[in-house]
């Protein structure tokens, strides 16, 4: 049996390779193998970073150019509830137009029937969905967010609030911008109870 020099021993498969074995030294191939494991690890870290930095609830309020929110000092964070948007032209909920403001100013009713019907449908869907779940602890609380333009007449806001209360949404929050102090960061969306 021959005496071998001490050192690393490679298997038969790698013994004649250019990198590990005693094959041709000094010549490296032009193609490098891509290592998949570090690549997958890097993408997992990027995904976790993005999940950690973005809010899990997503956007609660849709900021549109038609609605300029009023400013408030005492605010709390906006929570995920149905959003009734009142611009200078129309009243919408979940992207559905339920009334036009010029028509609502002319009417004598205190409620907005289309808004009330849509809110009742949403309440029924919530109750049906949560009644099927076992051990449900989420009772219907009746929370709604109103996102209204700062120059809309109070009579329209009063009709929206009455329609919400008639449909069972008694906890009404108004979307506002947090009023910043001099040199503070820019205003953020918030709710005032």
Automatic annotation (TrEMBL):
Species source reads Archangium lansingense
Membrane topology of the entry: Single-pass membrane protein; Single-pass type II membrane protein
- Membrane-spanning segments: 35-56
| Alphabetized Pfam families for the sequence | ExbD
Report keywords, A-Z.
Cell membrane, Coiled coil, Membrane, Protein transport, Transmembrane, Transmembrane helix, Transport
**Does the entry feature the keyword Protein transport, yes or no?**
yes
Magnesium is among the record's keywords:
no
Q: Into which family does the record put it? A: Belongs to the ExbD/TolR family.
Coiled-coil annotated spans = 105-132
Q: Where is the protein localized?
A: Cell membrane
InterPro entries in alphabetical order: ExbD (IPR003400)
Q: What is this protein called?
A: Biopolymer transporter ExbD
